[in-house]
Amino acid sequence: MARDSCLARITAGVAIGGAVGGAVGAVYGTYEAVRFKVPGLLKIRYIGQTTLGSAAIFGLFLGAGSLIHCGKSY
Protein backbone atom coordinates (compact mmCIF):
# COMPACT_ATOMS: atom_id res chain seq x y z
CA MET A 1 0.00 0.00 0.00
CA ALA A 2 1.44 3.35 -1.02
CA ARG A 3 1.98 5.99 1.62
CA ASP A 4 -0.18 8.42 -0.29
CA SER A 5 -3.12 6.06 -0.77
CA CYS A 6 -6.68 7.05 -0.04
CA LEU A 7 -7.08 4.52 2.77
CA ALA A 8 -3.97 5.85 4.52
CA ARG A 9 -5.31 9.40 4.30
CA ILE A 10 -8.70 8.40 5.70
CA THR A 11 -7.08 6.42 8.52
CA ALA A 12 -4.87 9.37 9.39
CA GLY A 13 -7.89 11.70 9.37
CA VAL A 14 -9.86 9.43 11.69
CA ALA A 15 -6.87 9.05 14.05
CA ILE A 16 -6.15 12.77 14.22
CA GLY A 17 -9.85 13.57 14.61
CA GLY A 18 -10.19 11.04 17.40
CA ALA A 19 -7.18 12.43 19.24
CA VAL A 20 -8.29 16.04 18.97
CA GLY A 21 -11.91 15.19 19.76
CA GLY A 22 -10.86 13.12 22.76
CA ALA A 23 -8.74 15.93 24.16
CA VAL A 24 -11.51 18.48 23.71
CA GLY A 25 -14.08 16.05 25.13
CA ALA A 26 -11.96 15.38 28.22
CA VAL A 27 -11.57 19.09 28.93
CA TYR A 28 -15.24 19.82 28.29
CA GLY A 29 -16.40 16.78 30.28
CA THR A 30 -14.29 17.76 33.26
CA TYR A 31 -15.62 21.32 33.12
CA GLU A 32 -19.23 20.13 32.93
CA ALA A 33 -18.79 17.56 35.71
CA VAL A 34 -17.42 20.22 38.04
CA ARG A 35 -19.96 22.82 36.93
CA PHE A 36 -22.99 20.59 37.52
CA LYS A 37 -21.49 19.05 40.67
CA VAL A 38 -21.73 15.43 39.46
CA PRO A 39 -21.32 13.26 42.58
CA GLY A 40 -18.44 10.90 43.33
CA LEU A 41 -17.36 8.27 40.83
CA LEU A 42 -20.06 9.33 38.40
CA LYS A 43 -17.69 12.15 37.44
CA ILE A 44 -15.29 9.64 35.90
CA ARG A 45 -18.11 7.98 33.99
CA TYR A 46 -19.40 11.33 32.76
CA ILE A 47 -15.96 12.48 31.66
CA GLY A 48 -15.36 9.16 29.90
CA GLN A 49 -18.65 9.30 28.03
CA THR A 50 -18.01 12.86 26.95
CA THR A 51 -14.47 12.01 25.85
CA LEU A 52 -15.46 8.94 23.81
CA GLY A 53 -18.48 10.63 22.27
CA SER A 54 -16.53 13.67 21.21
CA ALA A 55 -13.66 11.55 19.86
CA ALA A 56 -16.05 9.38 17.84
CA ILE A 57 -17.96 12.28 16.31
CA PHE A 58 -14.90 14.36 15.48
CA GLY A 59 -13.05 11.34 14.10
CA LEU A 60 -16.05 10.50 11.92
CA PHE A 61 -16.21 14.01 10.49
CA LEU A 62 -12.48 14.26 9.85
CA GLY A 63 -12.52 10.82 8.23
CA ALA A 64 -15.43 11.85 6.02
CA GLY A 65 -13.60 15.03 5.06
CA SER A 66 -10.53 13.01 4.17
CA LEU A 67 -12.68 10.70 2.05
CA ILE A 68 -14.13 13.64 0.19
CA HIS A 69 -10.65 15.05 -0.44
CA CYS A 70 -9.36 11.71 -1.72
CA GLY A 71 -10.95 12.09 -5.12
CA LYS A 72 -9.55 15.58 -5.70
CA SER A 73 -6.11 16.13 -7.13
CA TYR A 74 -4.65 19.60 -6.84
UniProtKB/TrEMBL annotation:
Transmembrane segments: 12-31, 51-70
Alphabetical GO biological process terms: protein import into mitochondrial matrix; protein insertion into mitochondrial inner membrane
PANTHER family according to UniProt: REACTIVE OXYGEN SPECIES MODULATOR 1
Family according to the record: Belongs to the MGR2 family.
Keywords linked to the UniProt accession: Membrane, Transmembrane, Transmembrane helix
Main location: membrane
Keyword Manganese: no
Superkingdom in the source lineage: Eukaryota
Entry's Gene Ontology cellular component terms: TIM23 mitochondrial import inner membrane translocase complex
Protein name in the entry: Reactive oxygen species modulator 1
Subcellular location: Membrane
Organism, as annotated: Anisodus acutangulus
